[in-house]
């Protein structure tokens, strides 16, 4: 008993696979950017502002 070959799977699900991949990739990118990256950037900027204020207070 032979098993029928699987044909046309890529063609049939191609657009679904591409749209899911792009959608999930975009959602993951936004989640990283707004959930992690901007928070760490804000922490870094606050640290440098604090150092600048301390240096300005020490020099005056």
TrEMBL record:
<comment type="pathway">
    <text>Energy metabolism; oxidative phosphorylation.</text>
</comment>
<keyword id="KW-0472">Membrane</keyword>
<dbReference type="GO" id="GO:0005743">
    <property type="term" value="C:mitochondrial inner membrane"/>
</dbReference>
<keyword id="KW-0999">Mitochondrion inner membrane</keyword>
<dbReference type="GO" id="GO:0004129">
    <property type="term" value="F:cytochrome-c oxidase activity"/>
</dbReference>
<dbReference type="InterPro" id="IPR014368">
    <property type="entry name" value="Cyt_c_oxidase_su7a_fun"/>
</dbReference>
<keyword id="KW-0560">Oxidoreductase</keyword>
<dbReference type="GO" id="GO:0016491">
    <property type="term" value="F:oxidoreductase activity"/>
</dbReference>
<dbReference type="GO" id="GO:0006123">
    <property type="term" value="P:mitochondrial electron transport, cytochrome c to oxygen"/>
</dbReference>
<comment type="function">
    <text>Component of the cytochrome c oxidase, the last enzyme in the mitochondrial electron transport chain which drives oxidative phosphorylation.</text>
</comment>
<comment type="similarity">
    <text>Belongs to the fungal cytochrome c oxidase subunit 7a family.</text>
</comment>
<feature type="transmembrane region" description="Helical">
    <location>
        <begin position="14"/>
        <end position="33"/>
    </location>
</feature>
<keyword id="KW-0812">Transmembrane</keyword>
<keyword id="KW-0496">Mitochondrion</keyword>
<keyword id="KW-1133">Transmembrane helix</keyword>
<protein>
    <recommendedName>
        <fullName>Cytochrome c oxidase subunit 9, mitochondrial</fullName>
    </recommendedName>
</protein>
């Amino acid at each position: 008993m032979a098993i029928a070959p699987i044909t046309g799977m890529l063609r049939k699900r191609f657009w679904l696979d591409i749209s899911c991949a792009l959608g999930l990739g975009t959602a993951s990118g936004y989640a990283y950017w707004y959930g992690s990256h901007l928070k760490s950037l804000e922490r870094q900027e606050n640290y440098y502002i604090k150092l600048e204020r301390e240096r300005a207070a020490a020099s005056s």
